[in-house]
């Protein structure tokens, strides 16, 4: 299902490496002043003047991080960029450039890579980042994509994972668990499809959660919102592996504990209904389902009035002393220690 059988299929080796790079990257335009030299030399040249520079990189491996039987290549390209930008925003920084490296086998056609790059280009445009380089090589098996994101920030505005204080409020953007439940639906439909290729599933009840899985967005808007509201979080992380695992990172690196309230967890109605259908506990999904790419951060209590009226934010708990531990306070008001059951790349 990589591509439509009726579509044109130009073999990659008909272009050669340089022809391919040229073909894929000729569309990219530069829009940041900090990009002095983009694609075309041995290295890109960037200049950030008095800003600090943040750099983050991620790998996506076919069969581990994505399954091409239900992930369209265009979406994959988009997602590969977005998940990296999310890490830059999690530092409270503005993303400015990316590099994109791919390893492909001859199983892929030029048209398939064009689709991948269409997604990359769309994301670069929407998030306003320059594609300034990359690398292209062959793979003997699957597709590998690595994106490196670069961002800029004024020195005093960087937000680390380590700055949370006891009594700070714990806040999350958007809603949780959607990407995980979207994946459950896609996996189920894949199995149905394998048994009956003519089945036409009704995906209407799942549009939001499938989009959360296939076409996630990074919260660039929130970084601007912080500026407008004059809020500087004391600590921040993006939610890629699941809320409980990210909460633990904030607590451990800040040397604090936390109380997280089950009844405050933000859930979309589609997540709730799909959890009921799959007979999965929605709290477990909100805590451990990954890939939502929302931001999790802490603020001082006195900043609460600045964020309280904003629908992007949900206060889900508060930080405590390190020796109090990390707890989920359930609807029944019992306290359960938080454990990270988030996705562990080395156990997968
Ligand atoms: P080198 O041999 O020095 O690695 P390449 O021929 O691989 O150089 O790359 C030439 C130019 O194209 C460089 O600017 C590089 O960053 C860029 N480039 C290579 N592959 C990609 C890619 N997949 N996406 C974007 N830019 C790329
Ligand atoms: Mg190279």
UniProtKB/TrEMBL annotation:
Pathway: Cofactor biosynthesis; thiamine diphosphate biosynthesis; thiamine diphosphate from thiamine phosphate: step 1/1. It is an enzyme of class 2 (transferase). Mg(2+) 4 binds at residues 42, 56, 87. Mg(2+) 3 binds at residues 42, 87, 238. Pfam families: AIRS. One of its GO terms (molecular function) is thiamine-phosphate kinase activity. ATP binds at residues 117, 134-135, 161, 240. The keyword Transcription regulation does not apply. Keywords: ATP-binding, Kinase, Magnesium, Metal-binding, Nucleotide-binding, Thiamine biosynthesis, Transferase. Substrate binds at residues 65, 291, 343. Mg(2+) 1 binds at residues 57-58, 135. It catalyses: thiamine phosphate + ATP = thiamine diphosphate + ADP. Residues 40-153 form the PurM-like N-terminal domain. Mg(2+) 2 binds at residues 58, 87. Its EC number is 2.7.4.16. InterPro entries: PurM-like_C_sf, PurM-like_N, PurM-like_N_sf, ThiL-like. CDD domains: ThiL (cd02194). The keyword Lyase does not apply. Mg(2+) 5 binds at residue 241. HAMAP family: TMP_kinase. Catalyzes the ATP-dependent phosphorylation of thiamine-monophosphate (TMP) to form thiamine-pyrophosphate (TPP), the active form of vitamin B1. Belongs to the thiamine-monophosphate kinase family. Reaction mechanism of ThiL seems to utilize a direct, inline transfer of the gamma-phosphate of ATP to TMP rather than a phosphorylated enzyme intermediate. This is Thiamine-monophosphate kinase. The lineage of its organism: Bacteria, Pseudomonadati, Bacteroidota, Flavobacteriia, Flavobacteriales.
